[in-house]
Write a structure and sequence with these properties.
single chain; alpha/beta; six-stranded mixed β-sheet
Amino acid sequence: MQDLLLVGITGLNTLFITLYQIALWQRKEYRIDRMRAYVASLEWRVRTHGFGITSAVLLIVAWIAASELLAILSILTIFVNNSLRIYKRGVMRPKFTLRSCLVFVATVFLIVLWVPTNGSLAFHLATFTFFLPVLVAAAVGIVSFPARVKKQKSISKAQSYRTQLTDLTVVGITGSVGKTSTKTYLTHLLGGESETIVATFEHRNSPYSVAEDMLKRISQKTQVYIAELGAYIPGEIAELAHLTKPSIGIVTAITNQHAALFGSLAALAKTKWELIDSLPENGIAILNKDDEQVVHQAKHCKKKMMWFSVQEAADVYVTSHALFQDKTQCSVSIIGEEFDVVLPTISMGQLTPILAAICGAVALKIDSETIVQRLATLPVIARTMELRKGISGATVVDDSYSASEASVKNAILYLSGIHTKDIRLVLVPIIELGNESSAVHERIGVLLAPLKIKVFIYGEDNKNSILRGLGSNPKATVMWVSDAKELTEQVSADLTSESIVLLEGRVPSIMRSAV
């Protein structure tokens, strides 16, 4: 009976751990570099302390003392940990794609190979449960090998196809933030997607996804291809540039987002600059004058440069602006001509990609009057300071696609200009900041402290850093909630038409649906 109960508990542990680990790998795009950065992060340490350490200690002592009781306690510790996590956050599982299903099957295969023919069942199950994440990682490696072969084949095919497109102009867009926004706005300023104007689909920005996009969506009729270029390691932007061969390169901004993957902001900046280094001699570099890292990188650039700025004079810059709850009024100087425009955007942070897009349109010979006319009808970008009506007529600002220090600052700036009594901010701490994580979250606490708003923080990552920033007597009411259902209930309670809810960072999907 005891053995049957142990097998049952281990079976549940196995299922939930496997689903959780595959979901985590999927979120990290099955990349060992991103997973390595996660394991080194405060986020991982917070989520694995306590129960994980207790289970490890029990297992080690069990083997040393040959104690089946301690081995059983190790299994039960992991079971309790899984149960509490599921109670608070629900079952974390991957999106069911071909790759995630193959990883699951490969994991099951490795589990079968692990099954012993003799020895103590309790010791075996405890050891197996503890090392299950390693089996999932091995399964990811097994499945990734043929995937890498397929990816390289697609990339080589796309490179060959690109050489045939002699009349194609490619605009490459990179940066820590604002790539998708800049791409979307530039596409709109050029007249929208068509046979002649094509932009990479949604958030595709890795070598394989861009290669697939080129093969499926570019034709001989395509005149301009706007490519979003992302990187998690040095050399990736250069690889993308070699694939797409841009003649216009846009660097939106270089911030500490994903800094943990590069080791330093300088290394990240150097990687982003691979786009500018790849441009031909007659290429055009479109650069952010407000970004210190970009300005520093540009000191030795000999290619033609166009500058945009929210703060000072440039080729394209904002001379004045006023933010409102549902729009932005500003004056924009475009190559010496000044225009008054009303933008259907609500964030100071969106001005930077808009200006970058204007520069791109100018570089592609679109006249200023046409640009200004199209600025008034800029599209709303999903989950990027997206304004919509929620339950009970509440105003919801959805900025949940991703989070960076810059996006959090912009969200707080937006809320600071709103004059209503019921303002609720839902915030998810930022990941992949490396050694900067503590300082960044302390700065966020400083920004929150003077606002008379309710702040709901999902999870307790970087809690102490935020508390230091808040100080001893903050005006903001800050609550930490680790249970997704409880978070949803608290945020959505007693909403009215006068309420404003801003979702910042990757909030639980149940939260987005509820409001």
